[in-house]
Design a protein that fits this description.
Elements (H helix, E strand, L loop, with lengths): L1 H21 L6 E8 L4 E14 L2 E2 L6 E4 L2 E5 H7 L3 E5 L4 E6 L2 E6 L4 E4 L2 E4 L7 E5 L2 E7 H7 L3 E5 L4 E5 L8 E8 L6 E5 L4 E7 L2 E7 L1 E3 L13 E9 L8 E8 L12
Parallel strand pairs: 2-14, 15-19
Antiparallel strand pairs: 1-2, 1-11, 2-3, 2-4, 4-5, 5-12, 6-7, 7-8, 8-9, 9-10, 11-12, 13-14, 15-16, 17-18, 18-21, 20-21
Length: about 270
């Protein structure tokens, strides 16, 4: 009886191994057209396709991810917007910008370099973003792991199923809104209302008082009414882009009247 049991277990093991081998995943290859910046033309070659999941859910796209030169390349909007980022295509310079909170990534078609918040970084293995054509669809493919990890996501490769699992995205750095501008009738007191406690910098140039609200965006209803003041000639405001290390800055500029100076006559 013991001998029969041993033979039975051995037979099960052999059958299980056979079944695993029989149903092992076979990578799927497909034709993909990749744009060559040198020849200004598309070359069509066969590449392995890659499956994607994001937070445990399968990702369906009109152009699949492919392995190109050893790197998983994915349509830029699939990975970026899937993690909550905004994507812009700059046609004149053939660049893609990805903004995510205070993070700004700029990738150039065919370039092994990327800009991350203004700093030049060499892409892994020097594999650049590319323009690609697949089944009549044209998309921009970017290195998946590089983009996802820059946005704080965890990326895992499953070689048995040719699947990339994207998990645990870090939330974008929150920003607050500048919602309202108000002043007393005399113009002696002005209030800028924000949705949360504000951090800011104050600068004074000649007769201009500049207030930069950091990590802030202008609210949809924000406006500056006409004000009558003994101290202020004019008020201007904008979503300011002059900081290289902070993406969201609201700048408010107070044009002071002649003889008015900060901090002698004005306090913040």
């Amino acid at each position: 009886m013991k001998r029969l049991l041993l033979r039975f277990v051995f037979t099960l093991f052999i059958m299980s191994a056979f079944n695993m081998a029989a149903f092992a995943y076979t990578p799927v290859m497909d034709k993909l057209g990749v744009y060559n910046t040198s020849t200004d033309s598309y070359g069509f070659f066969s590449y392995n396709k890659v499956n994607l999941t994001n937070k445990g859910a399968d990702v369906k796209t009109d152009m699949p991810a492919f392995i190109i030169d050893g790197r998983t390349m994915v349509p830029v909007r699939v990975i970026s917007e899937g993690l909550g980022a905004n994507v812009n295509w700059l046609d004149l310079t053939k660049q893609i910008s990805i903004s995510y909170g205070d993070l700004l990534i700029v990738l150039s078609i065919g370039s092994e370099k990327a800009l991350v918040n203004g700093q030049s970084i060499t892409l892994p293995d020097g594999v650049p973003a590319v323009l690609a054509k697949y089944n009549g669809v044209q998309r921009t493919l970017v290195p998946l792991r590089f983009v996802a990890e820059q946005m704080g996501a965890d990326v895992q490769w499953d070689g048995e199923t040719y699947t990339v699992h994207i998990n645990k995205p870090i939330e974008a750095t929150p920003y607050y809104e500048v919602t309202e501008f108000s002043s007393e009738e005399t113009g002696d007191s002005i209030t800028l209302k924000t949705s949360e406690n504000a951090s800011y910098k104050v600068k004074f140039f000649s007769n201009k008082l500049v207030i930069d609200l950091l990590n802030a965006r202008l609210g949809d209803q924000f406006s500056v009414p006409d004000i009558k003041s003994n101290w202020i000639e004019q008020v201007r405001y904008s979503q300011y882009t002059g900081y290289t290390d902070i993406k969201n800055v609201v700048r408010v500029v107070f044009q002071l009247k002649n003889g008015v100076a900060y901090p002698d006559n004005v306090s913040v």
